[in-house]
Amino acid sequence: MIEPDNFHIQDGRCIVVFAYDVGASIQIDEAEQRITATKERGRIKRKRPAPEYFDYHPPPLRITQELEPISLGAHHTLRNVDTVLYDFGALMVTYQIPLAGPFASLLPCEVLYENAQLLEGTFLHIQSLLNTLGPAIEKPNISEWSRTMRYFIFSRRNPRWICRNL
């Protein structure tokens, strides 16, 4: 078994996703016209055929914007932040945090849970976006409750760590 002290990340990312309800609905076509940042409409890519009712109608709108990096101790978010708008009044904000170094020194969990800088940065970003979208959002209101997800991706690591019997 490999000890965490001997495990070294050469290239990794922590992906932090915040999901919020921001209104009763979002008129995606109108939102797309109001946004000046890089944007794209996307469909979910599937490996196998699926019924048409699994597709979003209209497809969500993905926006990529450059924002000031948010400091998280020794780490920081990248400048590019992705936001995905859904017609049912929800959005997701995704940050990426580059990771490298000994496993034991990577982001401790308490840095990511209820992090004041990430929460405030996300709230300010959403508020600015709502101002830009204006009437494209029906009954705009940022919910106090959000869903936060965190993912860790290690592209290169040394030594190779193989998980068995999980």
How does this structure look, described?
- The protein is an alpha+beta fold.
- The protein has helices spanning 28-34, 109-112, 116-133, and strands at residues 8-21, 25-26, 38-41, 61-66, 71-72, 75-76, 80-85, 90-102, 137-138, 147-158.
- It has a six-stranded antiparallel β-sheet, covered by helices on one side.
- The longest helix is centred in the C-terminal third of the chain and has 18 residues, at 116-133.
- Residues 161-166 have low confidence and may be disordered.
List the helices and strands and how they pair.
Layout: E1 8-21, E2 25-26, H1 28-34, E3 38-41, E4 61-66, E5 71-72, E6 75-76, E7 80-85, E8 90-102, H2 109-112, H3 116-133, E9 137-138, E10 147-158
Antiparallel strand pairs: 1-8, 1-10, 2-9, 3-4, 4-7, 5-6, 7-8
